[in-house]
Amino acid sequence: MKTLNLIAVAFAVISFPAFAQNTTAPKSVVKAFTQKFSDAKSVKWDKENETEWEAEFKLKGVEYSANFSTEGTWKETEHKIETSAIPSNVKQTLDGEFAGYKIEEAEISETAKGTVYEFKLEKGETEMGVAISPDGKVVKKEVKTEKDEDEKDKD
Q1: What residue ranges define each of the domains in the chain, with the CATH number in brackets?
Q2: Residue 81 C-alpha from the chain's centroid
Q3: Cα–Cα distance measured from residue 23 to residue 150, given in angstroms and rounded to the nearest whole number
């Protein structure tokens, strides 16, 4: 029985590298990341898609994610925030235009175009993704219902 267990463990160890995903970002991406986030800790890379890489890391105790093109161009940085950190202009918009919705998730998203506050809101069976500029203007709104999710699961 010990021999069988030993063989199984050896097979798993030998097979694991064949199934592991290559998560080493190109040098141009790592260089751009290091220049922008020189104090980052615990960096983990994932290939987001064919043209983009995502780094997850900690900076001053906060968990961030940042996306870069394969050429090394910075695209976006995001991090979660507590609801108490939402600016008053943004909070006013949430309370007025999205009354009755519960904030499930709140993030700050920074791009070359500027900063927006992104929210995942929920009310009953309706889920909504909303982006609001720092001055309180809604810049993006995407509504999903449970029915939408059921249809998506069928595909």
Answers
A1: 1-77 (3.10.450.360), 81-155 (3.10.450.360)
A2: 13
A3: 32
Q: Pick the residue with more confidence: 147 or 4?
A: 147
What's the Rg (C-alpha) of the chain?
21
Alpha helices in the chain (DSSP H): 2-19, 27-36, 88-97, 146-154
| Tokens 């890391």 belong to residue | 57
Backbone angles phi, psi at 37, to 5 degrees: -130, 65
pLDDT digits (tens, 9 = 90+) for 39-75: 999 999 999 999 999 999 999 999 999 999 999 999 9
- Residues 37, 153: Cα–Cα separation, whole Å: 38
Distance in angstroms (rounded) separating the CA atoms of residues 41 and 97: 38
